[in-house]
Amino acid sequence: SSKLIKFDGEKEYVLKLAASELGIDEREFAFDQALQQISRWKNDLLSPLDVHPTDDWDISCLELYKKYESYKEMNDKFDFDDMQTGCYQLLKENEHVLDFYRNRFKHFLIDEFQDINKVQYEIVKLLASNAEDACFVGDDDQAIYSFRGSDSAFLQNLKLDYTNLETIILSANYRSGHKIIQTANKIVSQNKIRTQKKMVAAHDHSPSPVLFYPYDEESEAIMIMTDISEKIRNGANPEDFAILYRTNTMSRAIFEKLTTSSLPFRVDSDYDSFYSRKTVRSILAFMKASINPDDAGILQDLLPPLYLKKSAVQAAKALSILNDCTLIEALRFLNNLKSFQKKAIDKAVSVIHSLKELTPSAAIEMIEKELGFQAYLKKRGNEGNKMDKGSDDIKDVKIAARRFDTVLDFIMHAEHMTAMTKEIKLMSKKTVNAVQLSTIHRSKGLEYKHVYILGCVDGNMPHDYALESWRDGDRKPLEEERRLLYVAVTRAQMGLYISIPEYRRSKQARASRFLKILKREPSYKEELKIN
Fold first, then answer.
1. How far apart are the C-alpha atoms of 362 and 369, rounded to whole Å?
2. How many CB atoms lie within 10 A of CB 183?
3. Residues 6 or more apart in contact with residue 167 via CB below 8 angstroms
4. Angle at 394 between CA 465 and CA 243, to 5 degrees
5. pTM for the complete prediction?
6. How far apart are CA 466 and CA 458, in angstroms?
7. Each residue of 156-202: pLDDT tens digit?
8. Which of 116, 229, 370, 461 could cross-link with 366 by S-S, CB 3.0 to 4.6 Å?
């Protein structure tokens, strides 16, 4: 176990070492996305020699892939992907080992088969080639992990490798009421690439799903919290409720409202504070610098938008003593600055001190435009990740800041919410009877009496990246997003509440295209029932 690379942080460290050798600027490169790409290549059984890059991004990832594999070889290390590829190579290259396991196992049952990737599929083919029985259990309508390399096509095309395959449709659903199942069927039936089937509810103990229309993210949170509180007063338990969302950033408003309530709630183990996000931290760092320009803790978050390297932190500390000035002013005295760096620093030093006099909203606007933060994000190209763009974080932090009159109040709120996130995560490990906050991906396989689905508007569900792919002619991401909504809907046993905010990130929103088929049906409640 000492040789296993267990955490993405360690992998990212290796990639950053490689990036410095290759001349890739780590401040402008999405290492998390690169790790996903490398993992996909490995799970597709593509070594660095097998990869044929199609663009600059692929070329950079391929070079990092080579360096990453060399690092592991030199240091006698391996990662979780290597467990699978290594197993495949062992079976493929050692006939006696393969024969041993073929003879040992005669019956196979493989669950969640829609989530299988290529290397796993090839291992199964090797092991089960002489089996007396092989049973594959899966639902292609619940295939939602393509970002991890999963491909439901292996389930859909099983007959190509198993010619005597018998298909049994398990259509009875014992979790959800008839009207929830009816909703799920209508949504997912719009997908073109799927096995034709229809779920049938085993009971009819659910009212019609409710489509409700809050004004924006803040009112959405208030409406849901009020409704849950009312149901608990009428005898429900907190554990009966789940609030589901597409991405963690969508949970900011409901998280903040719940922290001020008496309702117990839980979050996923990988949940992180909205205010800990890289882009948000940088915006807050500019604000903190206006309050305390000698705060050394903020320098790390100020360096990227000022195009400075990490070494600038220690240099600034020494220069502030030498020149008897604040840490922020000391940045002007750094050596070997390029003209664009000097320009960014001079502008920042001259403007930062005035931010504390503005409202938080006005301060963010100045950081974004006057201090060139928006231009910095654009310079980063893909803004870090196609799923979580820095420019979207700016929109979200503006909404969060609207409730505060002073920069100091907003900073204190952000720090309080960051601390509360840590506290709630610790409590979540031992709190059972609590409202569950979760991404839809994390909720798969679970069930709750009442489910609220946040932000069912185009851009959230389906996500912007899926809409962009669809416009470019790739339909797969859009169909996966529809499956994701299907999974969310089928977590509900009795009550299903789908939120369609009128405004998203301060702009008028459109109801998710996935819901059009429901809105044409008179049986669905379409009202402001939650108040």
1. 11
2. 28
3. none
4. 65
5. 0.89
6. 10
7. 999 998 888 999 999 999 999 999 999 999 999 999 999 999 999 99
8. 370
